[in-house]
Specification:
The protein has about 190 residues and is α/β, with parallel strands linked by helices. It has one domain (about 1-190): Maf protein (Alpha-Beta Complex), CATH 3.90.950. Helices cover about 30% and strands about 25% of the residues. The protein has five helices and seven strands; from the N terminus they run βαβαββαβββαα. A hairpin with a 6-residue loop joins β3 (about 65-75) and β4 (about 80). α4 crosses α5 (about 175-190). It starts with a strand and ends with a helix. Bound molecules: inosinic acid. Inosinic acid (IMP) binds next to β3 and α3.
Length: about 190
């Protein structure tokens, strides 16, 4: 069975294909559909943006599809940057810019609890399903590690002493927000 993943992010495709290895599902990327338009993420929720991306591809290609959206939710910032995680420091900024702004905004904060939350929106046979993955952890005061991307160098998951950027990728993928949401998707699809 073919299922489109509404992304062109190589890392996400690799991770999703790995998670769905033991199913009969063949993941198709947007590149393979020759779709290179930017889908505007206009919702103010993670759930909403995942749905916008899945709906867009489903409407255009009439195909089964899933899309994901992720946010980093920091407790002392009342859930920010949340749905604005990719543009926390402004439009078209680097991962480093976002990290710098977050560390600045959290200067002196005693409560450093945070979580990554991923929503996957699946459209299968025109029915809609949502899967959520969460990893709890904390934001440390300075960046550590060279791996991963985004906020990985300042996020230490619960039960670990290293950041996501220091942990091996397979360890990160097995405990991460996206990994958990993909596990739920894989389990669901394996029963269909
Ligand atoms: P997206 O919805 O997956 O594109 O994620 C939005 C933003 O959240 C990204 O631009 C990153 O800044 C951040 N983010 C998402 N997933 C991760 C992760 O696994 N580690 C660190 N940052 C992430």
């Amino acid at each position: 069975m073919q299922l489109v993943f509404a992304t062109n992010n190589r890392h996400k495709l690799f991770e999703a294909r790995n998670k769905l290895l033991n199913t009969n599902i063949d993941i198709i990327s947007l590149n393979e559909l020759n779709f290179d338009e930017e889908i505007e993420e206009t919702s103010d929720t993670i759930e909403g943006n995942a749905k916008i991306k899945a709906d867009c591809i489903n409407n255009r290609f009439s195909c089964d599809v899933f899309a994901d959206d992720t946010g980093l939710e920091v407790e002392c910032l009342h859930g920010a940057p949340g749905v604005y995680s990719s543009r926390y420091a402004g439009e078209h900024v680097s991962y480093e810019d976002n990290v710098t702004k977050l560390l600045y905004d959290m200067q002196g904060a005693a409560n450093r609890k945070a979580r990554f939350r991923t929503c996957i929106h699946l459209i299968l046979n025109n029915q809609h399903f949502v899967f959520e993955g969460i990893v709890n952890g904390k934001i440390i005061a300075e960046a550590h590690g060279k791996g991963g991307f985004g906020y990985d160098p300042i996020f230490v998951p619960e039960g670990f002493s290293q950041t996501f950027a220091e942990l091996p990728l397979d360890v990160k993928n097995s405990i991460s927000h996206r990994g958990k949401a993909l596990d739920l998707l894989a389990t669901f699809l394996s029963t269909r």
